[in-house]
Amino acid sequence: MNPDDDDNIIRFPTFVRIEGEESPVIKSVFRCYVLVNRETALVPLNDWANASASRHATIKLTELDPWRVAETFVGTVRISTVFLGIDHRHFGNGPPLLFETMIFGGSLDHFQNRCSTWDEAEAMHAEAVDQVRRGHLRVVK
Fold first, then answer.
1. Which residues of the chain register pLDDT less than 50?
2. How confident is the model at residue 13, as a pLDDT?
3. Helices (DSSP H) in the chain: which residue ranges?
4. pLDDT of residue 28
5. How far apart are the C-alpha atoms of 109 and 18, rounded to whole Å?
6. Phi then psi dihedrals of residue 132, to 5 deg
7. How many helices and strands (H and E) does the chain possess?
8. What is the pLDDT of residues 29-58, one digit of tens each?
9. pLDDT at residue 4, rounded to an integer
10. CA–CA distance, 102 with 112 (Å, rounded to integer)
11. From CA 111, how far away is CA 5, in angstroms rounded?
12. What is the C-alpha separation between 81 and 102, in angstroms, rounded?
């Protein structure tokens, strides 16, 4: 029997490792950042991947997320603000969008807002919590 005929075999694509200078398109699409004492720093993709792995190791060991700005529960509604590490400003000009607040549950379920700095993220989180408590939300920027 030819192994290519077996429909129970899962085949995975081959991935090619792309090094820094060889990947201008990757660099322009993925602008990666790390946190250094609550300040953001632009880094190569490999450095971001290492920081992300370190983050997950820290979470596993301590159950604390070093990229979490804040997490608040209002009844059954969860408001979470985190550092994303990848610039989410995909179009247009302006500072990188590196932090995200999301609401899970309630009438504002899946609301999200993004900003550029840790301080802005703290303010954005507080505003989202306040709006959930008041029962409505306005986008802050």
1. 15-16
2. 54
3. 24-29, 45-62, 118-134
4. 56
5. 38
6. -65, -45
7. 3, 6
8. 679 999 999 999 999 998 999 999 999 999
9. 55
10. 4
11. 47
12. 6
pTM of this structure: 0.75
Hey, what amino acid is at 94? G
CA angle 133, 137, 141 (to 5 degrees): 120
CB contact at 8 A, 111 and 118: no
Q: Nearest CA to 69 among 42, 107, 104, 98?
A: 98
∠ CA 47-51-54, nearest 5°, is 140
Q: Mapped to the 3 state alphabet, what secondary structure does the chain carry? A: CCHHHCCCCCCCCCCCCCCHHHCHHHHHHCCEEEEECCEEEEECHHHHHHHHHHHHHHHHHHCCCCCEEEEEEECCEEEEEEECCECCCCCCCCCCCCEEEEEECCCCCCCEEEECCHHHHHHHHHHHHHHHHHCCCCCCC
Rg (the chain; Cα; Å): 19
Q: Residue written as tokens 């993709």?
A: 45
